[in-house]
UniProtKB/TrEMBL annotation:
Domain HTH asnC-type: 5-66
GO MF, one example: sequence-specific DNA binding
SUPFAM superfamilies linked to this entry: Dimeric alpha+beta barrel (SSF54909), Winged helix' DNA-binding domain (SSF46785)
Pfam families registered for this protein in UniProt: AsnC_trans_reg, HTH_AsnC-type
Name listed for the protein in its UniProt record: Lrp/AsnC family transcriptional regulator
GO terms under biological process: regulation of DNA-templated transcription; response to amino acid
GO CC annotations on file: cytosol
Organism: Pseudotabrizicola alkalilacus
InterPro entries reported in the protein's UniProt record: ArsR-like_HTH, AsnC-type_HTH_dom, Dimeric_a/b-barrel, Tscrpt_reg_AsnC-like, Tscrpt_reg_AsnC/Lrp_C, Tscrpt_reg_HTH_AsnC-type_CS, WH-like_DNA-bd_sf, WH_DNA-bd_sf
Length: 153
């Protein structure tokens, strides 16, 4: 169920999405409010689960993680034990930035960030040694055109 947010909540969230390191004074000034109501709204939105965490966004290439692969996975296994093991394997692999279960011909898609193709192969070999997978297709991203964490409000 979606949280009930008013225009001021949305402005505050917009500012936090752009730069969560801003002071309460800065946010309050930008959204046309004062510090205490802004703090109270942020606290409420945390309690409601609208704001789940604050983090720093790092530049993958600056850290030497130059290869981004989208990994399409088909499986013939759909039992609860297999799925539990597969999900644990994905959660334990830091290279996996995103994992989605899909409708259609492909069962899962992963976004994997690694140093290079050799590092991807090491990831792939580790993955298939952990869980039985019917088919894996890896697509190398040649260029990142858009990447954002900012949700439309």
């Amino acid at each position: 169920m979606a949280a009930q947010l008013d225009e001021l909540d949305r402005k505050i969230l917009g500012e936090l999405q752009l730069d969560a390191s801003q002071s309460l004074d800065e946010i309050a000034r930008k959204v046309g409010s004062s510090k205490t109501p802004v703090w109270n709204r942020i606290r409420r939105m945390r309690e409601q689960g609208v704001i789940t965490r604050q983090t720093a966004i790092l530049d993958a290439e600056a850290l030497g993680l130059e290869a981004c692969f989208f990994v399409l996975i088909r499986t013939s296994e759909h039992e609860a034990d297999w799925q539990r093991k597969f999900l644990k394997t994905l959660r334990d692999r830091p290279e996996v930035l995103e994992a989605h279960r899909l409708a259609g011909d492909i069962d899962y898609i992963l976004k994997v960030r690694v140093k290079n193709a050799r590092a991807y192969d090491q990831f792939y070999q580790a993955l298939i040694s952990e869980v039985k997978i019917y088919n894996v297709t890896a697509l190398l991203s040649m260029e990142e055109i858009k990447s954002t964490t900012v949700l439309p409000l």
